[in-house]
Amino acid sequence: MADLTREQLAQYTGQNGQPAYVAVDGTIYDVTNVGPWAGGQHHGNVAGQDLSSVILKAPHLKSVLPKLPVVGKLI
Length: 75
Description:
Elements: E1 2-4, H1 6-9, E2 21-24, E3 27-30, E4 41-42, E5 45-46, E6 70-74
Parallel strand pairs: 1-6
Antiparallel strand pairs: 2-3, 3-6, 4-5
Pfam family, one: Cyt-b5
Protein name: Cytochrome b5 heme-binding domain-containing protein
InterPro entries: Cyt_B5-like_heme/steroid-bd, Cyt_B5-like_heme/steroid_sf
């Protein structure tokens, strides 16, 4: 696990061979192998960002988070 700043998280977009990471409530999740996140994008959202407020508007809310690998903390 790693502690990443927002600037460091922004490098993990799922593009150019990078994994796709998103942060929610300070926890960073790996969405690289999640089908809907193919290419680092999902419903207009882009990997490499803090999506804490965005997930509250999603139909699934936070129910998908326990299924995702945790890779670190957002600092």
